[in-house]
Amino acid sequence: MPSAKPFLLAKMTWPEAKALLTETDIAIIPVGSTEQHGPALPLDTDAFEAEQFAYAVAERLWPKVKTIVTPLVSYGVSPHHMPFAGTVTLRAETLIDLVVDIGLSLAKHGVKKIVVMNSHGGNTPALSIALRRLYDAGLWCVQVAWWEIVADLVKQTFAPPYFHADEMETSVAWGLGQRVLQEKRVDEPGREPIAGYTRATMFAEPPNFSPVFDMTEYTDSGTIGNARRADPAKGKRIAEAAVERMVAFIEKAAALDTAKR
Amino acid sequence: MPSAKPFLLAKMTWPEAKALLTETDIAIIPVGSTEQHGPALPLDTDAFEAEQFAYAVAERLWPKVKTIVTPLVSYGVSPHHMPFAGTVTLRAETLIDLVVDIGLSLAKHGVKKIVVMNSHGGNTPALSIALRRLYDAGLWCVQVAWWEIVADLVKQTFAPPYFHADEMETSVAWGLGQRVLQEKRVDEPGREPIAGYTRATMFAEPPNFSPVFDMTEYTDSGTIGNARRADPAKGKRIAEAAVERMVAFIEKAAALDTAKR
Amino acid sequence: MPSAKPFLLAKMTWPEAKALLTETDIAIIPVGSTEQHGPALPLDTDAFEAEQFAYAVAERLWPKVKTIVTPLVSYGVSPHHMPFAGTVTLRAETLIDLVVDIGLSLAKHGVKKIVVMNSHGGNTPALSIALRRLYDAGLWCVQVAWWEIVADLVKQTFAPPYFHADEMETSVAWGLGQRVLQEKRVDEPGREPIAGYTRATMFAEPPNFSPVFDMTEYTDSGTIGNARRADPAKGKRIAEAAVERMVAFIEKAAALDTAKR
Amino acid sequence: MPSAKPFLLAKMTWPEAKALLTETDIAIIPVGSTEQHGPALPLDTDAFEAEQFAYAVAERLWPKVKTIVTPLVSYGVSPHHMPFAGTVTLRAETLIDLVVDIGLSLAKHGVKKIVVMNSHGGNTPALSIALRRLYDAGLWCVQVAWWEIVADLVKQTFAPPYFHADEMETSVAWGLGQRVLQEKRVDEPGREPIAGYTRATMFAEPPNFSPVFDMTEYTDSGTIGNARRADPAKGKRIAEAAVERMVAFIEKAAALDTAKR
Amino acid sequence: MPSAKPFLLAKMTWPEAKALLTETDIAIIPVGSTEQHGPALPLDTDAFEAEQFAYAVAERLWPKVKTIVTPLVSYGVSPHHMPFAGTVTLRAETLIDLVVDIGLSLAKHGVKKIVVMNSHGGNTPALSIALRRLYDAGLWCVQVAWWEIVADLVKQTFAPPYFHADEMETSVAWGLGQRVLQEKRVDEPGREPIAGYTRATMFAEPPNFSPVFDMTEYTDSGTIGNARRADPAKGKRIAEAAVERMVAFIEKAAALDTAKR
Amino acid sequence: MPSAKPFLLAKMTWPEAKALLTETDIAIIPVGSTEQHGPALPLDTDAFEAEQFAYAVAERLWPKVKTIVTPLVSYGVSPHHMPFAGTVTLRAETLIDLVVDIGLSLAKHGVKKIVVMNSHGGNTPALSIALRRLYDAGLWCVQVAWWEIVADLVKQTFAPPYFHADEMETSVAWGLGQRVLQEKRVDEPGREPIAGYTRATMFAEPPNFSPVFDMTEYTDSGTIGNARRADPAKGKRIAEAAVERMVAFIEKAAALDTAKR
Fold this sequence. Notes:
homohexamer, alpha/beta, four-stranded parallel sheet, two-stranded antiparallel ribbon, 6 strands, globular
């Protein structure tokens, strides 16, 4: 009986991997974090999201486009969450090295295209640097963050603030099947360190500035947003839309001829 | 006769610096790049912008808020422009180390707040990582990019695409006094490596994806945008608006009590 | 309903982690690899073993000793397996940094003792270096490899060679529930690059030398050993014995007063 | 109207740089420092000198030898000056990386010869290491310090001690147009940490030893030397002589066929 | 008169080295430590052993196999001995870099095979990582520790515990000619940090665990073992047996055709 | 019987080192190279010189000033000699790390002053950087090169050129007891890559420039200078004078109270 998830690198033997790598040259690396997500969501929320999105996208694409999904990178760059117990943070350099090593290893086996399924904004700078290194080594690379792919729908579906463990994130994680301590959810608008200029939400209108911060400057609970309004059905719809758009994009990416570069 | 720009660290003697540092604890580090900006703008366009914005902001704030402006960091992270002659790129790690060293040196003399005046998007990941290190060493830090501070006005004033050496950037650089080879300006809409999914402009509607790229995937001239429509008067107005908003923000930042952190 | 595995850091909210960290100061980090294990075992065999042993040990200890199990490190140092498709290798330095970052993060939340549950021999040098750094930062640290803990029983239970994806490893992984492609199992004694001096087995009698090698110097299939003789029942017994001994040791370690150091 | 300084990389567009790079393969990188220079000279004195010498040399050479002058590296390795306010120091490693990155970028565009115009002795070890790396990458490299090039004339023109912000340096900087707070100039012979063995001057007769030091071991004012005797006319003559010698040398260097190496 | 030790790289001129390198492609790098060895043995005991074994092996092989012996690496990775005066420790990274640099330099001159004669267990992780890097650069590499090569004879000849500056090591060092302060020798069984699980000896039966440690957790004198029973005659016999086995192995290694890899 | 060289750290037991460290806080680290020295001098010439000077100085000072001499660093930074067989080069970074690690280890045992006895000019940049790091960690540090200490006498005693394996160096090494293949000595004036500007000697009059170079640009034999004129008696006198001056200096250094810094 074949694996229920035929795209999982982890569960292939090497001859199976070898065979699959004659059919495809694209791999998805899910990258999350181990960081506080308020009193209702577990520390692995980002990791869980990254993995679920990677699985859903690969499932949808299979067998038309046979992407490979590598093992999850469970840890991310989360220094701003360290005041909250249980958070683990990598130095940015560590995540860079980790993703570069994974990418270069895959390239040796014939992978030519890397999709990093990233679910933690704090990882973005390190991933940008890592992927540039991989690009310079000949790989086509992209990082994808679900909330950016569906930013239009997010704004239609959920009220601000959009920040962390908020209505949007709680809904999506819940919709994806994450453990949610429902009674622990809180609504917390988020303090503003400099009123009017450091708004506690994504998609804020200018002028908005982003000083480096610890989460404790904005919140005591770890949540910024209205987790009580979270709705798994809405989350599922948003997740579904994100998957759809990613699938459409990766189909085109898979067809690119990167040899011409 | 005192210097015409009393905020320039470069032109102070150490006793002057010492005296000023009893009155202020905030410094602006301008960070640019040395990278191609199409056939009409010189390689130092980002560096020039960063310096001009830093000067303008410091001038406006003085003497109410006495910010210090450090010497320009002329080089940035520009690997994607390397196919164009004259471009110089730092590895991301080099820029991180450079900004960290500058920041830690300033901190030893009493600076507690760092504003990085960044005019090159390619620097953002490295600067994020550098500033986090400085934050962890006790500094309050922020990076500011003029086009983000006035994104609303940019969209009202200039037509898309907004990308590189375009109508917006040519106007602003020109308005700030940059050398512009007017007859060399070109309009170039920018190719799309994956049609519909990798749009050659900022502020694109979702779904939009950002694969790692070399500029040559989008343009042959180095310009993406309509430089022929550039207007220095409009550029000056936008720059003025950006300065005004930065000034208002830095005034508030200067008043923060970071010791409580 | 509480999590079925109450020791999983990943599935705790931060207030849960905080509460648990008032009761315990010991954490288990499972570290595996993503590397070929012959034609019958998947690439995640080491990772799977590390996680299963960590879970079994933590389960047995709970609630007498409440150890925390962190998310799995799925990737290890496997350059010698790179000729086989699908293998991913980290540079030793990357694994060092990764484990150091995890350890230092845990220490900030009150963890004082780290058990690395390592199931891949190739990780040992990097882990030794990482754990020394953590020790120098004040942590008590140990790495545990199941086959060393029960080397006596292994020698009684299985025939040599003991090397990779062999009778011993296939039995234990199988006994732990790993996917095994039974019909694909092979017996492969392993070539000897220098006859009589580089024996293809652990526990070889002196004189035995260990030159640096790629697995292809010893095997074409990726297996060295007799995987066809593998028996999940035997594997389960060995695993059970290893868990028992680890549990006894960790109980004592948990009781150590490391403050006196 | 062409730029008044046709050798400035900063002010070229990329097509201009491309055209120039078909005519020349030599570039000058000015490297200075941001460090205290006593009560009369500003913090940018070394940077100012480096830039002025680079400009003067390039001007003199043009158009016979078309050297390119890159943007200034304003920061250097100045830990020994850190006790004086306003000083910024890079770690040696940072300056190494910075110069290597600049050099390798230039090499990609066809530059084959690098002249580092260095005006700060504290940079020398880092620059030596950086230039060796560039040499190993195929570049011809040299670092030039003006006071070494005219050491004979310096000894004839100025009295010792020759150390920092002294008669020699104040004269030359002044002669080059640097801001000088004339009334603030001081004469300070410099203490000797170990009398007779650690003389506070260059060109000291043996036995002379050079322990690592902070400037505060030698001076309270930041000056070591007789700045009151400084004479901009003498400085101008020395600078002129240095430029002349550098020009003669670079002419020959430009004619070298480095391909034979 | 030729050198009495014709294999010493240090004492060759470069033309002699060049000539020899046409006849051989194998080199021995002795690596020791500078660390406490109890009250009877000097700090260079490991270094002395490494050098003596290298010399003895090379002498025995010459001229049948002309191995080159490089200068001694006197320093090793000894953080666990730092509580004892005089110990010098390298960071693991430093030893890695050092051995890599030596190996790559040798490779440039035609060396294809590296034998690291290591006499300090604490060096093993760093050496493993260094040699893997050299292997990846095309070299055949092996590290050899004398006590492992004759583990069978050690167990027959000396009583446990086998740990540090014990009967075994004192005998062998003495037999090789090391300075021994005979009257200072002590017998010290070694404490067990976790009784029954962290036995103070090599070759302990399972279950045995190896937490990271400082030597002071096991001993106050620096000795763990029975140095008073040491016997130089026995030590000489063991050393002789180790040399014999190494010689036999290196003869075969020298005959390997590594080009086929 | 006490060691004939009571200052050798290598030959002390740890209690002996501990006792000595209550009487002194100064240590000498000899640093050499393993690099070609022409056809007459062995590859260890610099290392041999460093060790001999360290021994001679320590002997002369004992017991008035009890300096400690650490084990020799046999390898240095010699990339420019790599075209000659047998040369081993460290990257500058490796030597920096090595010396820093040694220095920090000594500091933990009470050493407060470090004298690096360096006999290879190519090491100077790396040593400068290493010693600055140690200085910043609280140590007093100096590097000493014998030819600089007696530059006046060298110029009186030997004819130019002074460069490498020349009359001066051959004489001194010979005078110190180095193996010299007398019949192999050569006189080689040294080519000048840029005639009149890159003179093949130390102490050249300005204008003199020092491009980065490989020795092969100056010499085919590896010698630059007149080795045939070498005279061990003269060498001995120069060495003696250098030792005398070093001894006088170190006596004063030993008396410094570095705690006041």
